[in-house]
Design goal:
436 residues, mainly beta, Porin, two-stranded antiparallel sheet, 2 helices, 6% helix, elongated
Length: 436
């Protein structure tokens, strides 16, 4: 491993360390109001290549990228690869009146690592990435009539604050069976903290402020089984059609919830702890990929998760134990394309060696705040993959623009813009030197 690659790996490790510390501190509170419900807003970053093509990638199998949508793709590894990236999201929240809020926040996309045990036959994948995100700040204004000594009303505010989220550490193995079929299996260790606070503050200083905080820690394991099959020369010489499918097992996350009550922001005024248990549903995903030649790649993907089977022994925002009101089965559709003008020509002009990506997606969310209306998201994605001076190294830029929710029926509409910067490094490791 050369010095430049080592420096790049160190840079990724330092960034990851600071991001993990920030996640542990639960200090970010700038995101969608909809992240308040259930276990938060679902996050899924499979690779910077897939992110620019609609965010799926279950049929992608690339020697340049470690795609974490389907563990079967890890069998097709020639180089040891490390990838990591950060993203920024700008969000505009509109309630349909004159009340518009704008917030922005940064986060970790993922840290990914993969290497071949046997080139293009058996490979390993490891990653750390966000699984859900909770980040909101909602303020309500109200008053207590006849609450003062003179019989006047007392104005007060209630702030609903949310922090945290769940994270996933993934590890697994992919292996090829013959030239046309590959399988993979991975395990996800899911863990994290979901924190919700309610603060009441009065304009009249004779009233004491109050605070109630619920902090729920959860952790558990789940597994994903994947398969990919491909056919060559389907419509023309040199093309390839790939189909991929994954099945994710249901799992139970166990932990505890701590309730903290107080008249100030002192968090240890009074605390009680109870057991907490959350059952996540099974998941299915399928995708098609068509490689026209070394220059063009087309993909389409479907994700289905029956969240109406979700269960929790403790109440969550928008969810009451034993009830499916407020839950929906999640369906996500996406499609995209990538064009690399130079194909495999490493001596082509620079801008012809840049990969250009475009995609779109539709996501029927798993929550319904009013129990009637769905929270749907629609977006467009785009990306560039820029080669660097070090062979096997690329910097990927991804963008995403979309809308979530609606302004009718007491709901709000999110308009978001996301920008991501990702570093992908690949080189041969563990090669025995030959003495001349």
């Amino acid at each position: 491993m050369n010095v430049s690659i080592f420096k790049s790996l160190c840079a990724i490790a330092v960034v990851a360390l600071f991001m993990v510390q920030d996640l542990t501190a639960q200090s970010v509170r700038a995101g969608s109001v909809y992240s308040r419900f259930g276990i938060g807003e679902i996050q899924a970053f499979h690779s910077s290549q897939a992110a620019g093509m609609g965010g799926g990638g279950y049929a992608l199998s690339s020697g340049r990228y470690k795609t974490f949508a389907n563990p079967a793709s890890w069998s097709n590894q020639l180089l040891t690869g490390v990838a990591g990236g950060l993203s920024y999201e700008g969000l505009t929240i509109d309630d349909g009146s004159s009340d518009v809020s704008r917030v922005g926040s940064g986060s970790l996309n993922s840290i990914q690592f993969g290497f071949p045990i046997k080139e293009r036959r058996i490979g390993v994948g490891l990653s750390f990435a966000p699984f859900t995100r909770v980040g909101y700040d909602i303020r309500l204004l109200d008053q207590l009539d006849g609450s003062t000594a003179t019989g006047d009303s007392a104005n007060y505010t209630i702030d609903y604050l949310g922090n945290g989220g769940l994270h996933s550490f993934t590890s697994g193995l992919g292996f090829a069976v013959g030239e046309r079929l590959s399988f993979g299996i991975s395990s996800d260790f899911i863990f994290g903290l979901l924190e919700e606070s309610r603060e009441t503050n009065f304009v009249d200083p004779s009233f004491s402020p109050t605070r109630l905080t619920q902090a729920t820690r959860l952790s558990g394991l789940r597994a994903t089984i994947g398969a990919q099959g491909n056919l060559s020369n389907v419509a023309k010489d040199g093309d390839r059609l790939t189909a991929g499918i994954t099945f994710t097992t249901p799992t139970t996350l166990n932990g505890n919830r701590t309730n903290v009550f107080g008249t100030t922001q002192d968090r240890d005024t009074l605390g009680t702890s109870i057991d907490a248990s959350v059952s996540l549903p099974i998941g299915f995903a399928a995708g098609l990929g068509y490689t026209v030649d070394s220059r063009w790649v087309l993909v389409s993907d479907l994700v289905y998760q029956p969240w109406t089977n979700f269960e929790s022994q403790t109440s969550l925002p928008g969810y009451t134990p034993g009830s499916t009101v407020g839950l929906r089965d999640r369906i996500r559709l996406s499609a995209g394309a990538e064009v690399l003008p130079a194909g495999r020509d490493v001596f082509a002009p620079y801008w012809e060696r840049v990969a250009y990506r475009l995609g779109f997606f539709y996501d029927q969310g798993y929550i319904s705040p009013d129990g009637v209306n769905d929270v749907n998201t629609i977006g467009i994605t785009a990306g560039l993959s820029v080669p660097m001076g070090v062979p096997g190294t690329r910097v990927d830029i991804t963008t995403e623009v979309g809308r979530r929710g609606q302004t009718q029926n007491g709901l709000v509409r999110d308009t978001f813009f996301k920008f991501g910067l990702n570093l992908n490094i690949g080189e041969r490791w563990f090669v025995k030197r030959k003495l001349g």
